[in-house]
Structures are given as C-alpha cells and as structure tokens.
Specification:
Keywords: Membrane, Transmembrane, Transmembrane helix. The structure is a single chain. It is elongated and about 85 Å long. It has 161 residues and is mostly helical.
Length: 161
C-alpha cells in the first residue's frame, strides 16, 4: 500500500512537471488536478478492495464454528492446567497475567509495587503465585501443575472485575 502511495505522488509530480513545460501554463493546474484525482481514486479503490477481502465474515457469523473454537480452546486450557508446571508457566501464566493487566489497568512497567498490591488484593497470596509473570519455575518439567480448580478460581476472579 505504501508503494502505491509513493507511485501516486511521483505520477502527480511528473504530470505537474510536464504541465509546466507545456506552453499553455493555465493547463498545468487542470492536468495536476486530474492526475491527483485519478491517483486518489485508485488508492481508495485499492483500499476498499483489500479491506473487503481481508475479512471473511462467512465463518465469523457461524455460531456453531464460534462455539467449536471456544470449546477447543477451553479444553486445551484445562489440559494444560492439569499437566505440568512447565506447561502452566509456558502457556497459561502469560495469558492470565496479560488478562490481569488488561482488566485492572495495572502495568508492571509503571510501578511494580502497585502492580503487586493490586494483584494480591484481587487474587490473594496463594493464587497470585500462579498468575505472577515473574514466578516461572526453571525446573517445572517434573512438578505437577496447579490443576483445574486453581484455573477456575483465577478465571472467576478475573471475570468479577
């Protein structure tokens, strides 16, 4: 898209230069306006064409497909919660921490103390251990994950915000 914009500008400038060389100077304005109009209409046509093809709403409106995707994602989350600590740390912890940041607006980068205080107030010390993005275990391959009950409790608290 950027390339098309650059080409349009070059064409308009080229037409302006050609019009200035033309012996009848008042034609330059009309030639430049015509070139700019054609360039803008072409860019607009390309944007509308690309936007229409980028989104396939035939599948997005299918409630059965949406339900299948949601169910599949939920089953994967439950399986990872019941799996090892390593799976929890790799897949669920980042997602839960991101959801916590989005839901509360607390950012770790702004003020870590406020971030932690908000987290402990929402989850409590026992659950925050499983959401804290800095509490990743390096030896979690052999350790069991916290399980479905902890995942359910964390999600319920996030939902209650």
């Amino acid at each position: 898209m950027r390339r098309i914009g650059v080409i349009a500008i070059v064409v308009v400038l080229g037409v302006q230069l050609l019009a200035l060389v033309h012996p009848d100077r008042h034609v330059a304005l009309w030639m430049g306006a015509a070139a700019a109009t054609i360039a803008l209409l072409t860019v607009r046509w390309l944007v509308v064409r690309d936007a229409g093809s980028a989104f396939d709403d035939s599948r997005a409106r299918d409630p059965a497909e949406t339900l299948r995707r949601w169910r599949s994602k939920t089953e994967i989350m439950i399986a990872r919660a019941d799996s090892t600590r390593s799976d929890w740390d790799k897949y669920l912890r980042p997602m839960l921490a991101r959801q916590f940041e989005l839901a509360t607006g607390a950012r770790k980068g702004k003020d870590p103390r406020v971030f932690r205080a908000t987290a402990v107030a929402l989850f409590g010390e026992q659950l925050w251990v499983w959401v804290d993005p800095d509490n990743v275990s390096r030896t979690g391959v052999d350790e069991p994950g916290p399980g479905r009950a902890v995942l359910d409790d964390v999600l319920r608290r996030l939902e209650g915000i």
